[in-house]
Design goal:
It contains five helices and two strands, in the order H-E-H-H-E-H-H. With 106 residues, it is mostly helical. It binds a DNA duplex (13 and 13 nucleotides) through helix 2, helix 3 and strand 2.
Length: 106
DNA sequence: AAACTGACTTCTC
DNA sequence: GGAGAAGCCAGTT
């Protein structure tokens, strides 16, 4: 049976939780894994609500160009970047992530 | 049920 | 490469 037992958001959370440490995934990437390659915006909204804040490492989710967007958590973009750096994510001088290296190869 | 919003992506100039 | 505009999706009001 193909019943959608889990919501799109639930799928998103599941995918985000699968992101390995030291790597980052883009909203489009997550959306694609969640089943809708164009639901990048929806993914961001789910993170904003983020009922699974401590469960979903939303700080590992970045834009396609490698820029840290959003993150209503403590520290904002600043704290998010710091967290990623602490995990081993390589940042460029433009405060952008080196997707070629730290991008989630999925 | 309809309209608005938003942590995106892609196209074009 | 940078800036602006349009399109798309799910959730919330």
């Amino acid at each position: 049976m193909v019943t959608k037992n889990i919501l799109f958001t639930e799928k998103v959370y599941t995918v985000v939780k699968k992101i390995p440490k030291g790597k980052v995934a883009t909203y489009g990437q997550i959306a694609r894994l969640a089943g809708n390659p164009r639901a990048a915006r929806a993914v961001g909204m789910c993170m904003k609500n983020n009922p699974y804040a401590p469960v979903v490492p939303c700080h590992r989710v970045v834009a396609q160009n490698g820029v840290l967007t959003g993150y209503s958590g403590k520290g904002g973009i600043r704290g998010k970047q710091k967290l990623l750096k602490a995990e081993g994510v390589y940042f460029l001088k433009n405060n952008k992530i080196h997707m070629k290296q730290s991008g989630w190869n999925q």
